[in-house]
């Protein structure tokens, strides 16, 4: 049946047309995709080794099947995450493809009218391409929560480009059921919305230090230059930036709310002001490292996907905040001892994970044993190096999970959920996993990979300087006076291991690993990290921070092999593998092989050569 335009609002016109098509397959899809209340909210069906046959209700955020390990995800969980694990139906076991009316017969809507239906309006409209949709009834049941409101009164296209999982026919069909019209041709340029009318999700992102080495602008991903990693504490402006989405804006930071959701579904809400007033402040030194740090080194052997970081996707700061353990205890959790983690438990009522959800929908989780450990030092941080968190680093509140991959230290923290399951986000279930060197991305079984938590041993050379022995006195950046008889090469760098395991040795080779010498491990207590006080100044229950090191090598020795090699060993005598291929994985995560830095001596040394 062809739709005949009638009088009335665009919504009324389309409603009348769809009523005439009530027997059509498109109308059936529209009915299932339009939840009105919690009682008839659409149900999602997931298929996977642990979830097959389980029904979830994203609205209720509660368990929906008795005595099972199935749990409904909170509304704030990312839409990208939920769809990425095999959404197969909305109340039926097969996809339903909506049949929209021909575009030429749809109501023509001026873009100015779309703008009037933004946040705060009685009805919320968005555009996709040149079509207009009234998504008012969808917002409450949207798997990604209210993040969809960022597109309210404008185009949804730039957001769906970020959440690529939306680019599926099933998702398009759902949106089509909310179609109310098309943009008036008067507002189009070459048949499209003008670029100036499409909001940039990143337009309010903060400005960054120009010294950072940028790998992507939207979202921002930038690393610290090696020479700027010379101190124990990394300055805030130079701390590497790893963003998956945009940087949220917070108008009233002290009123920022953190919701704690317990395993029985009860919630307790704290403002940042509450956290400051109610709990003792804790400070720790902790190193954060991206799982992709040094990925470019692995890719030099065999290409791995992802941002091609060098050695600078790592940094150390003094973090201040309150212990998550204290907050959970106040919320009613028995933190001592932590809840049972019995792998044979079948009821689904046992807490095994603490899920973290950020204001921009990023999600991750850690084992509950880490969250509640008295020496785990998991921090709800509001300060970085004595200053409020910078916007790029989670302002006004983030979680810091020391000794663990930085992907679990969720920024802009808005919700903590205690659950039997890991976070459903793709950043937990897919992106941050490793597979064998023989496994390729195509057809990989993501469920077989273990989510990355603690980091392996890592080390890198961050500075190589030639020092002339003919200079009578050389005052180095290390704050010490050297008198060298021969020309030397001054190496500096860092070494780090996850789980709070202290670095006990850094080895340097100038002949490809045939012979070795030990570097000097530096102190930790001041900004330069070189006062020799070591552990006495360390803040935290364990060694959550890197070790800085230095090594002076005679130039004659350095010239023989033509390269420097570095490897580190931690207190459990874990050490780095020699080969990148030994740990190669298609995602390029956890590059930790010996670092090799080529060296070609200059013909003549004249003081300090950077």
Automatic annotation (TrEMBL):
GO terms for molecular function: heme binding; molybdenum ion binding; molybdopterin cofactor binding; nitrate reductase (NADPH) activity; sulfite oxidase activity. It is an enzyme of class 1 (oxidoreductase). Its main location: mitochondrion. The chain crosses the membrane at residues 70-91. Its cofactor is heme b; Mo-molybdopterin. Pathway: Energy metabolism; sulfur metabolism. It catalyses: nitrite + NADP(+) + H2O = nitrate + NADPH + H(+). Keywords: Heme, Iron, Membrane, Metal-binding, Mitochondrion, Molybdenum, Oxidoreductase, Transmembrane, Transmembrane helix. Residues 1-25 are annotated as: Disordered. SMART domains: Cyt-b5. It comes from the Eukaryota. Residues 106-184 form the Cytochrome b5 heme-binding domain. It is found in: Mitochondrion intermembrane space. GO terms for biological process: sulfur compound metabolic process. Its EC number is 1.7.1.3, 1.8.3.1. One of its GO terms (cellular component) is mitochondrial intermembrane space. This is Nitrate reductase [NADPH]. It comes from Viridothelium virens (Speckled blister lichen).
């Amino acid at each position: 049946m062809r739709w005949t335009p009638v009088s009335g609002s665009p919504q009324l016109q389309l409603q009348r047309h769809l009523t005439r098509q009530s027997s059509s397959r498109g109308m059936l899809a529209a009915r299932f995709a339009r939840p009105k209340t919690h009682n008839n909210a659409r149900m999602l069906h997931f298929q996977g080794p642990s979830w097959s046959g389980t029904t979830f209700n994203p609205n209720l955020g509660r368990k929906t099947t008795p005595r099972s390990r199935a749990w409904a995800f909170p509304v704030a969980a990312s839409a990208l995450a939920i769809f990425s694990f095999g959404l197969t139906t909305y109340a039926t076991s097969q996809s339903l493809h909506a049949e929209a009316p021909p575009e030429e017969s749809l109501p023509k809507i001026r873009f100015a009218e779309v703008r009037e239906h933004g946040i705060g309006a009685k009805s919320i409209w968005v555009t996709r391409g040149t079509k207009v949709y009234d998504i008012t009834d969808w917002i409450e049941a949207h798997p990604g929560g209210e993040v969809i409101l960022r597109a309210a009164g404008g185009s949804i296209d730039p957001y769906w480009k970020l959440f690529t999982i939306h680019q599926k026919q099933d998702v398009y069909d759902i949106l089509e059921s909310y179609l109310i019209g098309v943009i008036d041709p008067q507002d189009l340029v070459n048949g499209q919305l003008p670029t100036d009318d499409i909001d940039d999700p990143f337009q309010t992102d903060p400005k960054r230090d120009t010294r950072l080495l940028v790998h992507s602008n939207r979202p921002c991903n930038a690393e610290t230059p090696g020479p700027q990693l010379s101190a124990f504490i990394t300055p805030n402006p130079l701390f590497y930036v790893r963003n998956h989405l945009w940087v949220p804006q917070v108008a009233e930071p002290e009123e920022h709310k953190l919701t704690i959701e317990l395993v029985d579904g009860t919630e307790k809400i704290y403002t940042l002001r509450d956290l400051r007033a109610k709990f003792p402040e804790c400070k720790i030194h902790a190193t954060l490292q991206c799982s992709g740090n040094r990925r470019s080194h692995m890719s030099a052997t065999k290409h791995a996907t992802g941002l091609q970081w060098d050695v600078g996707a790592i940094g150390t700061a003094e973090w201040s905040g309150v212990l998550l353990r204290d907050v959970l205890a106040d919320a009613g959790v028995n933190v001592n001892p932590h809840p049972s983690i019995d792998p044979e438990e079948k009821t689904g009522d046992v807490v095994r994970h603490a899920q973290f959800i950020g204001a921009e929908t990023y999600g991750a989780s850690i084992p509950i044993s880490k969250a509640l450990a008295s020496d785990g030092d998991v921090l709800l941080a509001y300060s970085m190096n004595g200053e409020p968190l910078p916007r790029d680093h989670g302002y006004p509140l983030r979680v810091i999970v020391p000794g663990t991959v930085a992907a679990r230290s969720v920024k802009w923290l808005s919700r903590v959920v205690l659950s039997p399951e890991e976070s459903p986000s793709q950043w937990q279930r897919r992106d941050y996993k490793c597979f064998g060197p023989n496994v390729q991305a195509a057809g990989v079984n993501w469920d077989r990979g273990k989510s990355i938590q603690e980091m392996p041993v890592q080390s890198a050379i961050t500075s190589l300087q030639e020092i002339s022995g003919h200079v009578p006195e050389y005052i180095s950046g290390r704050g010490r006076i050297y008198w060298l008889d021969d020309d030397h090469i001054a190496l500096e760098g860092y070494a780090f291991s996850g789980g709070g395991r202290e670095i006990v040795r850094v080895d340097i080779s100038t002949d490809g690993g045939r012979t070795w010498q030990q570097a000097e491990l530096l102190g930790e207590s001041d900004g330069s990290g070189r006062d020799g006080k070591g552990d006495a100044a360390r803040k935290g229950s364990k060694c959550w921070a890197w070790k800085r090191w230095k090594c002076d090598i005679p130039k004659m020795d350095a010239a023989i092999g033509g390269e420097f090699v570095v490897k580190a060993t931690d207190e459990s005598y874990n050490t780095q593998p020699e080969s990148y291929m030994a740990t190669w994985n298609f995602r390029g995560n956890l590059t930790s092989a010996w670092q090799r830095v080529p060296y070609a001596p200059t013909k003549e040394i004249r003081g300090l050569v950077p």
